Amino acid sequence: MTDQDDDSRPEAPGGKARARRDSLFLLSEVVRETGEPMGKAKIRNLSATGLMADCDFAFLVGDRLAFDLRGIGAVTGTVRRAEGMRIGFAFDRAIDPQ
User: Fold this and answer.
1) Cα 6 to Cα 78: distance, rounded to the nearest angstrom
2) What confidence tens digit (pLDDT) does each residue in 16-53 have?
3) What is the Cα gyration radius of the chain?
4) Which residues are CB-neighbours of 40 under 8 A, at least 6 positions away?
5) How far is residue 82's CA from residue 41's CA, in Å, rounded to a whole number?
6) Is 37 exposed, middle or buried (CB count within 10 Å of its CB: 0-12, 13-18, 19+)?
7) Which residues contact 14 (CB under 8 A, 6 or more apart)?
8) Does pTM top 0.90 for this prediction?
9) Which of 76, 92, 28 has the alpha carbon at shortest distance from 54?
10) How confident is the model over 88-98, as pLDDT tens digits?
C-alpha cells in the first residue's frame, strides 16, 4: 500500500516539473551498469521518473545503476543526489509505477 506525497510545489529546483511520487517501502537489488552487484536498497518513494532509496553502499552523483523493481523489472538510470547512503535516482526512461 502506498501513500501519495502531498507536494504543493509545481516545480522541482531548476524549473523542471515534478512527477507525482508515491511513498512506500520496497526492497530492491542494485547493480552497477557493468553488472556488479552492489547490495540492496530500501526504496522510500517512487515516481514515473525516479526514486529515492537508502542503499547498502554509498554512491556518487553520476553513478550509473540498475534497480530490479517488483512488477516492473530492471530500470536503469543515474544517481542525481547522494547524501550518505541515501540517493535520488533518475530513470533513463519513464516507468508506470502503478
Assistant:
1) 25
2) 555 555 557 789 999 999 999 999 999 999 999 999 99
3) 13
4) 27, 28, 29, 30, 55, 56
5) 13
6) exposed
7) none
8) no
9) 28
10) 999 999 999 87
